[in-house]
Amino acid sequence: MMHMTATRARAGFSFLAFALLGSAALAASAQVTLPMWPVPATMQTLVVLLLGALGGPRVGAAAVALYLAEGAMGLPVFAGGAAGPAALMGPTAGFLLGFLPAAWLAGHAQGGLARQALVLLTAHLLLFVPGVLWLAGFVGLERALMAGFVLFIPGTVVKTALALATLRAARSTLGRA
């Protein structure tokens, strides 16, 4: 009985530690910004994919949820140091909330190269749905599609490829250990 309690405690600590480190990585990636209006380009989507792919769906989504809670409470973790409830009501709120299902889906990047690539690309594209729909309320649908999706296609391809390469390298390294 004592062994099971210790094992659960270690698992809970690992879950919490990964979520905390993941939220910190996400906050740091938000500060790597290419200023664009109304949606800045950041490295956040790469980190969101990696949180899910390396941590699994539950841990990846927990890290994102923790990051969102930190920002909502006023910590300057969003792009450009933005924080507070107002940031979660602004033009980028749909993208921020889209990180949750994206991280969860990326956590299912199992199997061979083609399946992993498809899951990561789908997860990356998934976050644009709430992002563009929310942004459309501020700038209209046509402009939201251009400013919140089309301009991000090259970066999406590159960041998805980087996430895939990182995932495969990490799994290969862990497999040899």
| Strand numbers in spatial order across the main sheet | 1-2
Secondary structural class: mainly alpha
Number of strands: 2
Task: Extract low-pLDDT stretches.
Answer: none
Mean of residue pLDDT?
A: 95
Sequence of secondary-structure elements: HEEHHHHHHH
Shape: globular
Which architecture does the CATH hierarchy give at level 2? Orthogonal Bundle
Largest sheet report: 2 strands, antiparallel
Describe the structure.
The chain is an all-alpha fold. It has one domain: Arp2/3 complex 21 kDa subunit ARPC3. 73% of the residues lie in helices and 2% in strands. The chain has 8 helices and 2 strands. The chain has helices at residues 2-30, 44-55, 57-72, 93-106, 113-126, 128-139, 141-148, 153-176, and strands at residues 33-34, 41-42. The chain has a two-stranded antiparallel ribbon. A hairpin with a 6-residue loop joins strand 1 (33-34) and strand 2 (41-42). The chain is globular and about 60 Å long. The two termini are 30 Å apart. The model has no long low-confidence stretch (mean pLDDT 95). This is Biotin transporter. It comes from Teichococcus rhizosphaerae. Keywords: Cell membrane, Membrane, Signal, Transmembrane, Transmembrane helix, Transport. One of its GO terms (molecular function) is biotin transmembrane transporter activity. The chain crosses the membrane at residues 118-139, 145-167.
What brief labels describe this structure?
globular; Arp2/3 complex 21 kDa subunit ARPC3; mainly alpha; single chain; 2 strands; 177 residues; 73% helix; two-stranded antiparallel sheet
